[in-house]
Sequence to fold (371 residues):
Amino acid sequence: MFALSLRTAACRVAVFCLALAAVLTSPPATAEVSVGLLDAAWSFPAAAAAIELRYTTANRYGQAAPASAGLYLPPGLPPAGGWPLVVWAHGTVGVADGCAPSHHPQSERNRGYFGEILGSGYAVLAPDYQGLGTGGGFSYYNTLVEGRSILDAVAAVRTTPVPLSRNWVVIGQSEGSHAALSAVSLYDPTGPAAGLNGAVVTGLRANTGPSLREMFRSSSTGSANQIAYAAYFLTALQQLHPDRVTPFLSDFGRDYVAQANSTCLADLTAAAAGRRPAALVADPDSPTPTFEADIAELTDLRTEQLPIDIAIGYGTADIDVAPTWTEQFGDHLRTANPDIQVTVTRYPGKDHSGAFLASLPDTLGFLRSHL
Fold:
């Protein structure tokens, strides 16, 4: 049933709060969805209300499992037809239950970015991904888990009386770019999440298998976060095929990958003490004997017959996720999908987060034309 815990700090406009309280205490359309108000400390300053959504999605085995999301509403009353919906696919935070973004303060970068989105009149739905915030551990970069977490969140929020328009656009950054495209890959235009009109992705890891193989090499360079990214990938591969991963880790790698299961990004990066991804495996040139095949099993996307426009952005100075294959991936999408518009925008001199921020004016233009 619906759970309501009104906190005035999380709902700042008195008349709106009373209307929202009436909405949240209305009977639910399904017993599998519950809502309440999130702590204001975990919200965006520009949001008039922050709502916690609990719903059912799929875990890494394809079984029904609980998931959580934050829904952030813009100031003012909804327009006729409801607020247009932006779905936020977040980047890497970790794979442990306690890393769920909806239960942590938002970063300064995200507060600024989504302050503009909310101020422009869009509601923001932000799934945590299954396993974050609901126990069980998140299967990192798992196409099924990420894609279903997003699509099922949209379907779930539609069972509530919150006034949202039918159309929605997904925005993803870094790992979230893969999550956003996972949702596009699994999207059914006749299903309960119908109305997807576009995707905007930045910091995309294109050609995942080869790019990760390069990241593991002893000669690789890049940000300090890369060893944590590598460990999270190895946790996901262990979940799929432990016998294909664990025997090929170094002594340090076994301890560090075990730590990755319970440690969020910043702390896990610090625990590496400057080591590179190569330190995790016995053979940095071949992290595991079936590495690229297993990465493909985990992360592969449908890239043909996609039904919606896609905007891709990248920074030329990105050292977290090298944009080596981004333009090539955009060319592939255009060739494979001649009936949609695929744009690739280059942000000179911008790093991983910088490209995300630099893309905001283009993203707002995309939202105006697709919502």
